[in-house]
Amino acid sequence: MQAYELTQLISQRADLNKPYLEFLKVPDLSVGLYVLSAGGNDLQSPHTEDEVYFVTGGRAKIKVADEDRDVQAGSIVYVAKNVEHRFHSIEEELTVIVFFAPAEYSSRP
C-alpha cells in the first residue's frame, strides 16, 4: 500500500518551490499536487492523457475548451485528453489533486 497525507504533500511541494509535485506514478495512473497562488497564471497545455482535478482548497475558475466554471474546495472536474484547459482568475491560493489516466506523459508519441 502507498498512503499520503495532504499536509505532508503540501510541505514537500513547497520545499521544491515548484507548482506541481507528482507523488504517485504507475503505468495506468499518476497523481500529483498542483498549487497556484492567488493572482497566478496556469501555464499548462493540453495533455495526452485524461485528467481529473479535485480541488482541496482555494477559489478560481477553470476554462475547459469553450466552457468556464467556478471551482472551490470540493469541486471535481474531468478533462479529456488533448483538450485545451487552464485555471484562471485565481482568487485564493488553489490547491488541486490531479489524477492522470494512464500515467502523465505515457501516451506521448
Task: Kindly describe this structure.
With 109 residues, this protein is mainly β. The protein is 10% helix and 52% strand. It has a single domain (21-101), classed as Sandwich (Jelly Rolls), CATH 2.60.120. It has one helix and six strands, in the order αββββββ. Strands 1, 2, 3, 4, 5 and 6 form a six-stranded antiparallel beta sheet that branches. Strand 3 and strand 4 form a beta hairpin. The longest helix is centred in the N-terminal third of the chain and has 11 residues, at 6-16. The model has no long low-confidence stretch (mean pLDDT 96).
Characteristic terms for this protein:
Jelly Rolls, mainly beta, 1 helix, 6-stranded antiparallel beta sheet, 109 residues, globular
Task: Give the C-level CATH assignment.
Answer: Mainly Beta
Structural class by sheet pairing and helices: mainly beta
Tell me the strand percentage band. over 45%
Q: Please give the alpha-carbon distance between the first and last residues.
A: 31 Å
- Chain-averaged pLDDT: 96
Q: What helical percentage do the residues reach?
A: 10-25%
Count of domain modules: 1
The value of Rg in angstroms is 13 Å
Shape: globular
- By DSSP (H or I, 4+ residues per run), the number of helices equals 1
> Can you say what the CATH homologous superfamily is?
Jelly Rolls
The total of beta strands comes to 6
Largest sheet: 6 strands, antiparallel
Write down the secondary-structure element order: HEEEEEE
CATH topology: Jelly Rolls
Q: Architecture in CATH? A: Sandwich
Low-confidence stretches: none
